[in-house]
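quick q for whoever's on today - can somebody do inverse folding on this one?? i tried earlier but teh output was garbage lol. C-alpha cells:
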C-alpha cells in the first residue's frame, strides 16, 4: 500500500483512501483510477450506443418506430417556390423504378409527412428531368406535340394540400391518361 500526502493538511494518507483520516478532506481519485474509468467508458460506450440505435431502428422487428412517420420514398426537389408565405410549390423528381402503385402510395405519405408544417402545398411529381425542364413551355402552350406528349407521360403524380384537405393523385400512365389512384388524407 503506497502513501501520499493530503493536499489540505499534509498528513500521510493511503493511496486507496477516499477521505483524509487527519482532516476529513475528500481526496481526488488517483490517476490510475481515472485511467481505468476512461478505458471502461471507452469500451462500454460504443456497445451502449449500438444497443440504443438498434432498438430505435425501424427495420428491427419489434423495434421503435413512431407511428406517424411513413416508410419514406426518396425524391429530389428540382424547383421550389413559396405560396403566400404559408406553404410551398415544388417540382420533384423520382426514380423511374418508383413508378408503381405501391411506391407511389408510399410517396404520397412521404409528401404528406414532409408538408405537415405548411397550410398549402402543390407538388408535381415526375420520373424524368426532361419533363420538368419542358414544363413551362407545355403549360404556356409553346411546346410541340412530341414534347407535350413526353411531358404528359412523365408527370406521374400531384399532391395538393389546402389547409386541412390533402389529396394525392397518381397517374401511372401519365397525367393525360386516366387517374390510377386518388387518396385523401
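ok took a stab at it. sequence:
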Amino acid at each position: 500500500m503506497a502513501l501520499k500526502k493530503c493536499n489540505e493538511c499534509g498528513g500521510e494518507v493511503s493511496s486507496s483512501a477516499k477521505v483524509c483520516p487527519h482532516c476529513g478532506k475528500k481526496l481526488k481519485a488517483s490517476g490510475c483510477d481515472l485511467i481505468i474509468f476512461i478505458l471502461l467508458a471507452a469500451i462500454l460506450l460504443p456497445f451502449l450506443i449500438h444497443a440504443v440505435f438498434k432498438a430505435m431502428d425501424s427495420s428491427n422487428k419489434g423495434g421503435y418506430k413512431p407511428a406517424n412517420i411513413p416508410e419514406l420514398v426518396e425524391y429530389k426537389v428540382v424547383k421550389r417556390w413559396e405560396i403566400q408565405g404559408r406553404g410551398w410549390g415544388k417540382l420533384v423528381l423520382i426514380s423511374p423504378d418508383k413508378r408503381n402503385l405501391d411506391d407511389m402510395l408510399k410517396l404520397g405519405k412521404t409528401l404528406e409527412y414532409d408538408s405537415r408544417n405548411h397550410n398549402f402545398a402543390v407538388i408535381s411529381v415526375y420520373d424524368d428531368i426532361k419533363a420538368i425542364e419542358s414544363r413551362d413551355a407545355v403549360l404556356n402552350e409553346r411546346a410541340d406535340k412530341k414534347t407535350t406528349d413526353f411531358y404528359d407521360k412523365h408527370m406521374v403524380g400531384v399532391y395538393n394540400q389546402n389547409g386541412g384537405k390533402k389529396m394525392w393523385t397518381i397517374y401511372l400512365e401519365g397525367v393525360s391518361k386516366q387517374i390510377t389512384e386518388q387518396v385523401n388524407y
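fwiw The chain has a mean pLDDT of 86. also The longest strand covers residues 76-83. so keep that in mind when u check it
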